[in-house]
């Protein structure tokens, strides 16, 4: 059936432009859109798309609250939420990652990056790999005054699992991690699954946030 996408943005031109671009892909179909967060929640839970492109700031209900409601209410096949934002990245977007959003993308990103982002998120490779995303995550986390101390959860990780967590946080894909550690990609997938399970995390995005918060990695 391919990847189904829902677009939530208060700007009609953004909805139409992104919709036309994504609908032109053979493996992607846009099943709906909404101009505000409240309507987006209702429609997403009704349509259950694979990926939701969610604007950070919208009327009636902002993107963070809408994403949190969608992610907390979804069951069965996961709905992935990809936050859309402009250049003013701030803690608001960071909080979206904490509640389970799969990552974020700048609205002025090249067309091919948007398409790739949808495919990556739909495949479960949460948190986008482009270096700009890693830099923005690092910038946001470096401005947070307080960090949580390492939790007992982290102590449950083996040395190799902790190493994998660090590489995830640095933005590496499974293939890149496999090359770095000189192991098979399937082995990396197993390690990633164990990391998420032991830390009780939804996906790689939350793993990155936790890694920065606890000091497993620090912004360069």
From TrEMBL:
This protein's name: Response regulator
Alphabetic keyword roster: DNA-binding, Phosphoprotein, Transcription, Transcription regulation
Response regulatory domain location: 4-122
PROSITE patterns: HTH_LUXR_2, RESPONSE_REGULATORY
PANTHER family reported in the protein's UniProt record: TRANSCRIPTIONAL REGULATORY PROTEIN NARL-RELATED, TWO-COMPONENT RESPONSE REGULATOR
Top-level taxon in the UniProt lineage: Bacteria
Residues modified as 4-aspartylphosphate: 55
Gene3D superfamilies (alphabetical): 3.40.50.2300
Domain HTH luxR-type residue range list: 150-215
